[in-house]
Design the sequence.
């Protein structure tokens, strides 16, 4: 399934709503969307994962890469509401130890408020 | 650069295929048993700047077409021996000339007649009563099509040649990767090794090795590169070089699996495309009948106990490169006579059936439990066949590697 990305703004950063599969086949589209956020100087990014059905090993690598990129610029990446299956795959790769995962937008934004 | 249509004409559209470089002017073959009509047509075509060949009957026309491969053939319908439509059928059945452009001339321009000619292989029609302008326009249209088809054939051939070269290179690289794999059999007295490798492409990103370390210990690693193909295989080969015994002694100074994975994590960061490895490194200590292992995100390993139980390794560790400061720890478990260790890439158990349901570790464990009486080598073939049966396909979507080690009772 193809990937669709919608952007919303938040204080100090951007929320990207991702819909579809975060996989090897869709990696360029995902990278382009994230790169556009970074190019505009936003330091904080929330990936709304609630409409991501599937993530493969390449998708996990992309999440780790984006987390590292934002950390380098004293920014932060966090994930919002992943579905059960995606959450399970991410847990196997220990992603939550690298990237904070939130259950609702209010908590995610509150965390950024503190970080900012 | 020459145009395919050397002489400008108000009817034609010279230069519309200007990107086609023609060394010589295009050739037009005229096949007509009526010598007067043929000569008249030849004169007209020559005045357009084209090279003209002539044939007085269908059979000799076919011979000229095969020999000269003209861009366009203007063909009379009514001829003795081999008439126009039969000529077209001969051409279309011969793959070496099948794409030739044929413009059929006829004095009968009834729709049924034209339909029959097209059905039997003509590309276009020209009435014998056609005006000079129409003749020029149809000849030029035929030449344009011929030039585009020639270009397409040329590009197709170039692509085929390049693909053949790439395939050769990939095969050569695949043979090199296979040369890095261990020799099956007895690694140390009482320690049997078997393995099986099925890359999803010619060149895989999974690699493994088993080496003897002194008289009482065996080292093993299996690495799985994310992604597929050439870049995965190159990265895997680089990591495999790092994992060689001499390199480990120099860079890590220890055979401790946790220390090796920690150093590999430092040396192999995520690539700019987000590519990484999962890896399992293990050491079988025969003296104390124990297995020491560390993993970076690799969960495909289990022990099939002599008692029949299958115990999966349950690592919860980051893949290589996710966090450069991460420390990987060594886990110790007993490994006794009659136990079998299986280390495998996730391509084996994450294989989907036609509905998308994955085969999974539980089914794989059940398959292992059916194999107590089989030799180690047979076990590997059996589980790979079971996975293939689940998927309903012979080839796997991801690389599949399985390594088995048995401590003989």
Sequence:
């Amino acid at each position: 399934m193809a990937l669709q990305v919608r952007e919303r703004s938040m204080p100090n950063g951007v929320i990207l709503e991702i819909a579809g599969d975060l996989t090897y086949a869709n990696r360029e589209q995902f990278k382009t969307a994230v790169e556009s956020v970074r190019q505009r100087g936003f330091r904080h990014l929330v990936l709304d994962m609630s409409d991501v059905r599937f993530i493969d090993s390449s998708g996990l690598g992309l999440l780790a890469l984006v987390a590292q990129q934002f950390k380098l610029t004293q920014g932060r990446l966090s994930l919002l509401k992943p579905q059960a299956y995606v959450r399970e795959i991410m847990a196997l790769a220990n992603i939550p130890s690298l990237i904070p995962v939130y259950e609702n937008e209010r908590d995610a934004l509150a965390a950024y408020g503190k970080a900012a | 650069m020459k145009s395919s249509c050397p002489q400008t004409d108000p009817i034609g559209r010279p230069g519309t295929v200007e990107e086609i470089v023609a060394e010589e002017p295009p050739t037009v073959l005229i096949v007509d048993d009526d010598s007067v009509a043929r000569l008249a047509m030849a004169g007209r075509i020559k005045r357009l700047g084209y090279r003209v060949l002539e044939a007085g009957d269908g059979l000799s026309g076919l011979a000229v077409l095969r020999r000269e491969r003209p861009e366009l053939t203007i063909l009379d319908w009514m001829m003795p021996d081999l008439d126009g439509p039969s000529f077209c059928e001969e051409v279309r059945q011969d793959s070496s000339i099948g794409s030739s452009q044929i413009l059929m001339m006829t004095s009968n321009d009834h729709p049924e007649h034209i339909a029959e000619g097209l059905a039997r292989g003509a590309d276009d029609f020209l009435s014998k009563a056609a005006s000079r302008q129409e003749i020029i326009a149809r000849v030029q249209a035929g030449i344009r099509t011929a030039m585009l088809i020639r270009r397409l054939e040329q590009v197709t051939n170039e692509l085929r040649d390049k693909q053949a070269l790439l395939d050769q290179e990939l095969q050569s690289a695949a043979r090199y990767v296979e040369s890095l794999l261990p020799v099956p059999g007895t690694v140390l007295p009482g320690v049997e090794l078997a393995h099986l490798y099925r890359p999803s492409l010619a060149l895989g990103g999974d690699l493994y090795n088993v080496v003897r370390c002194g008289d009482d210990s065996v080292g093993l690693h299996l690495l799985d590169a994310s992604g597929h193909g050439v870049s995965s295989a190159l990265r895997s080969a680089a990591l495999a070089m790092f994992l060689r015994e001499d390199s480990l002694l120099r860079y890590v100074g220890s055979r401790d699996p946790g220390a090796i994975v920690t150093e590999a994590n430092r040396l192999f960061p995520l690539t700019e495309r987000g590519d990484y490895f999962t890896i399992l490194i293990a050491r079988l200590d025969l003296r104390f009948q124990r297995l020491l292992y560390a993993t970076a995100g690799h969960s495909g390993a289990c022990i099939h106990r002599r008692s029949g139980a299958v115990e999966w390794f349950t690592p919860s560790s980051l893949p290589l490169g996710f966090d450069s400061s991460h420390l990987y720890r060594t886990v110790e478990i007993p490994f006794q006579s009659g136990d079998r260790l299986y280390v495998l890439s996730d391509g084996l158990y994450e294989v989907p059936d036609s509905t998308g349901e994955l085969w999974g570790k539980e089914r794989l464990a059940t398959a292992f439990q059916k194999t107590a009486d089989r030799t180690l080598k047979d076990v590997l073939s059996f589980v790979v066949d079971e996975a293939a049966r689940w998927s309903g396909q012979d080839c796997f979507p991801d690389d599949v590697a399985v390594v088995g080690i048995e401590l003989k009772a």
